[in-house]
Amino acid sequence: MPEVMENIGLNEPNGAEGSNSATYLTFVSDGLHFGVHTDKVVEIINNHNIRPFPMVPDYVRGVINLRGQVIPIIDMRLRVGKPYQEITAETCIIVLEIGSDIIGIVVDSVAHVTDIDMNQATLIPTENRLELTRYMVTDENGTVIMLLECEALIADNIAM
Predict the structure, then answer these.
(1) Cβ atoms 144, 157 nearer than 8 A
(2) Cys-Cys link to 59, which of 79, 81, 129, 137 (CB 3.0-4.6 A)?
(3) Angle at 38 between CA 37 and CA 42, to 5 degrees
(4) Contact, 45 vs 93, CB < 8 A?
């Protein structure tokens, strides 16, 4: 059974009232930093057993059984055109609820939960944009975080 990571602060407030702030979980995949809105995050798991599934796109690693629910798993590295990497001790799955679909994304590591001032978000020029992102922000450490468009993850109807 997957081990659930606890105490990551997903239920923290979305910033000061009246501000244009949103809470994001940030993660790393092949050196790229992404942020996913915490409203979409169900949980983070590690120590997982992904079972291969036939006749799906190459970025779909397979499925997991999470408390009786079969969840398709997308490898973020492969989804953004990066090379395959074996699972490490830091690798985890972020389980997301996107509309009525539940999916998991394999990421190299989870960074932290942060409030992002959406007034500081910059539209990524179309020619430089990954199909899964539209906006980016730079955090206080100078790290560029691309904000994940979760709906684009399931645009190819891979959810089972």
Answers:
(1) no
(2) 79
(3) 125
(4) yes
Contact predicate 48/132, CB 8 Å: no
Alpha carbon 78 to chain centroid, angstroms: 13
C-beta atoms surrounding 62 within 10 Å: 16
Q: What is the Cα–Cα distance from 92 to 19, expressed in whole angstroms?
A: 32
33-58: pLDDT as tens digits: 999 999 999 999 987 789 998 999 99
Contacts of 155 (CB under 8 A, 6+ apart): none
Its pTM stands at 0.83
| 29: phi then psi, degrees, rounded to nearest 5 | -140, 115
Read off the tokens for 18: 């009246």
Tens-place pLDDT, residues 63-103: 999 999 999 999 999 998 889 888 888 999 999 999 999 99
Amino acid 123 reads L
The rounded distance, in Å, linking the Cα atoms of 25 and 38 is 6
